[in-house]
Amino acid sequence: MKKSPAAITMAAAAILALSACTDSGSPSAAPTEAEGADEHTSVRVAALPIAETGALWGAIDAGIFEEHGLDVEIVPAQGGAQAIPALLSGDIQFAIGQPFGPFRADIQDLGVAVIGNYASSLAEGDDVNAVVSLADSGITRPSDLAGKRVSVNSLGAAGDVTIMKAVEDDGGDPSTIEFIEVAFPDAQAQLDAGNIDAAWVPDPFMSQIVGAGGNLVVHPYQATIPGLPLLVNITTQQLVDSDPDLVADYAAAMTEALDWAAANEDAVRAAIVENMGIPEEAAAGITLPEFTAEVDVDALEQLAGLAVEFGVLDAEPDLDRLIQQQ
Q1: In 3D, which of 189, 144, 161, 182 has the Cα closest to residue 98?
Q2: How many angstroms separate the CA atoms of 209 and 19, rounded?
Q3: Which backbone phi and psi does 322 adopt, to 5 degrees?
């Protein structure tokens, strides 16, 4: 892999250091009770603008968080790693993101906790994300990605780790891949412009690119760790210790929300249409993940092991400390 893992870690540390120098961690950034008789607690939750967030959007509209006394504001994020500084500064109270943000934060002993799962990939069949390429690219299988420019939404995370493993298992040299950070909504334009050769994307972007004649190269999660957690719920150890009731209320609401999403796919798809501005027919074809609050610790342990093997992480996180299932 041409992007240096050490450089990525140093960059993340720099971001965290800069965040600590702001005044956004003042007491005014902590959760406050909304004015009025309902006394709902306002919380800010970082989430990616992808189809999986349909469960959260839909559950909020269904009043599930309100029933648990929470007024939720969703803050757009690109990945779990990008949300960590905002968590540590107190700008947000919770985040939904890939596991590598909390992995790195734990390795640096920054006081982050995974309090539950959010969504997991599918163990078989069509999965919720894939590496895709344009029809005339000549890239049709994992080994074809060797020596190519491949986009991921966040460098040094589950996308590039599982892609490298899939390429290696298919006989290619994963060290020759150049990973480029591209936000999911921008992947199609970057492919069309020739700035990247392939893109790792979830739905609806995966279905849109493949539906337009593109190649589905590989479902990297299924090819490496079937059923791997896609997104987890993250907060800080400080919040767990200082306001356990808020954390428990959020976790209970999220568990109910994910159970609701699993049983109400049509409502989730309607929320995707409303919040992502895509046509109903496109939303109908989206492959939804397994929405579950239960963390698959074994799968995350395998993922961390692969990250160390490929040099993306210098060490494995302490999962006994990091994962605090509520």
Answers
A1: 161
A2: 36
A3: -70, -45
The answer to whether the CB of 307 falls within 8 A of the CB of 225 is no
Entry field: residues in the chain: 326
d(CA 136, CA 214) in angstroms, rounded, equals: 8
User: What whole-number distance in Å separates Cα of residue 326 and Cα of residue 319?
Assistant: 15
Q: Which of 208, 180, 194, 219 is nearest to 276 (CA)?
A: 208
Residue 182 and residue 241: Cα distance in Å, rounded? 36
Query: Over the Cα atoms of the chain, what is R_g?
Result: 19
> What is the C-alpha to C-alpha distance for residues 239 and 242, in angstroms, rounded to an integer?
5
Whole-angstrom distance, CA of residue 286 vs CA of residue 305 = 31
Number of H helices, E strands in the chain: 15, 11
- Averages of pLDDT over runs of 10 residues in the chain (326 residues) are 38 34 35 53 94 96 97 82 88 94 96 98 93 97 98 92 98 98 94 98 90 96 95 97 98 98 97 93 91 97 97 96 97
Residue 82 backbone class (left: φ over 0; alpha: ψ -120 to 50; beta: rest):
alpha
How far does CA 258 lie from the centroid of its chain? Answer: 15
pLDDT 10s digits, 269-318: 999 999 999 899 989 988 999 999 999 999 999 999 999 999 999 999 99
Measured N-to-C along each axis, helices 100-107 and 297-309 cross at an angle, to the nearest 10 degrees, of: 70
Answer yes or no: are the C-beta atoms of 215 and 185 closer than 8 Å.
Answer: no
State the chain's maximal CA–CA distance in angstroms: 63
- pTM metric for this prediction: 0.81
Give the Cα-Cα-Cα angle 85, 156, 99 (nearest 5 degrees). 60
Strand (E) or helix (H) holding 306: helix 297-309
Lookup: tokens for 57: 């959007």
